[in-house]
């Protein structure tokens, strides 16, 4: 769910516990290949469930916050 605060849209509610790489990329408006580049570079943390790679809402939020701080 998005909320509008001072003209800025923010994700305020997570609808899933974890997202596929493609879903997480869609939330960030990033391509699948760029998401894998960021994951392989250690910039986005993931979890493995069996052979599947997932990204939690918290991991996405942490990436965004680090990116904002680093400018």
* Proportion of residues in extended strands: 25-35%
Radius of gyration: 13 Å
User: In this structure, how is the largest beta sheet organized?
Assistant: 3 strands, antiparallel
Task: List low-pLDDT spans.
Answer: 1-8
- Spatial order of strands in the largest sheet: 3-5-4
Number of helix segments? Answer: 3
* Topology, number of strands: 5
Instruction: Tell me, rounded to a whole number, the average pLDDT.
Output: 87
How much helicity do the residues have?
A: 40-55%
Shape: globular
The figure for the number of domains is 1
Distance between the termini: 26 Å
* Secondary-structure content class: alpha+beta
Order of helices and strands: EEEHHEEH
What attributes does this structure have?
71 residues, alpha+beta, two-stranded antiparallel sheet, 3 helices, 44% helix, globular
Task: State the gist of this model.
Helix content is 44%, strand content 25%. It is an alpha+beta fold.
Describe the structure.
It is a single chain. The longest helix has 14 residues. This protein has 71 residues and is α+β, with helices and mostly antiparallel strands. The N terminus is likely disordered. The protein is 44% helix and 25% strand. Helix 1 packs across helix 2. The strands form two sheets. A three-stranded antiparallel β-sheet has the order 3-5-4. Strands 1-2 form a two-stranded antiparallel sheet. It is built from three helices and five strands. It has one domain. A hairpin with a 2-residue loop joins strand 1 and strand 2.
């Amino acid at each position: 769910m998005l909320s509008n605060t001072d003209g800025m849209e923010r994700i305020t509610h997570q609808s899933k516990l974890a997202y596929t790489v493609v879903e997480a990329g869609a939330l960030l408006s990033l391509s699948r290949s760029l998401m894998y580049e960021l994951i392989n570079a250690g910039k986005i943390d993931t979890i493995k469930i069996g052979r599947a790679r997932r990204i939690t809402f918290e991991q996405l939020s942490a990436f965004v916050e680090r990116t904002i701080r680093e400018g």
